[in-house]
Amino acid sequence: MNDLTALAEEHLAKAHTSDHGRSAQLIVHEGPLRQTVIALVSGTALDEHNAPPAASLHALRGRVRLTADSGDHELSAGQLHGIPQERHGLLALEDSVVLLTAVTATGAGPEARP
């Protein structure tokens, strides 16, 4: 079991000492499911990147802006938002920690087999 509050504090401290102003840890890796704690110092960004097949972002601490062509969304601590199926980025508006939940591949259940 992971203590998200402790992980948030740990990675925010690491982000403050990092040259890039961020720190992350993959905490769940089961099949296509990934959950990652990401800490960003205020003003730090994750550059635009492709979206996985399905994902959500849960702000654990601070405030971030999820950027995408379809529109930007600000999240504050406690808020959850789906990640659009397009290239997107993330900007820390203040020292922040988020939980990224992603499905990295579609399942190959019986209905997907030829």
Describe, in plain words, how this protein is organized in 3D.
The chain is mainly beta. It has one helix and nine strands, in the order αβββββββββ.
Share of helical residues: 10-25%
Unreliable segments of 5+ consecutive residues = 108-114
Q: Assign an overall shape.
A: globular
Class inferred from helices and paired strands: mainly beta
Mean pLDDT: 90
Give the biggest sheet: 5 strands, antiparallel
Strand content: over 45%
| Helix-strand topology string | HEEEEEEEEE
Topology:
Blueprint lengths: L3 H14 L4 E9 L2 E8 L4 E5 L4 E8 L1 E6 L4 E4 L3 E3 L5 E5 L3 E8 L11
Brief account:
It is built from one helix and nine strands; from the N terminus they run αβββββββββ. It has one helix at residues 4-17; strands at 22-30, 33-40, 45-49, 54-61, 63-68, 73-76, 80-82, 88-92, 96-103. Mean pLDDT is 90; it is low at 108-114.
What are its keywords?
globular, 1 helix, mainly beta, 114 residues, 5-stranded antiparallel β-sheet, single chain, disordered C terminus
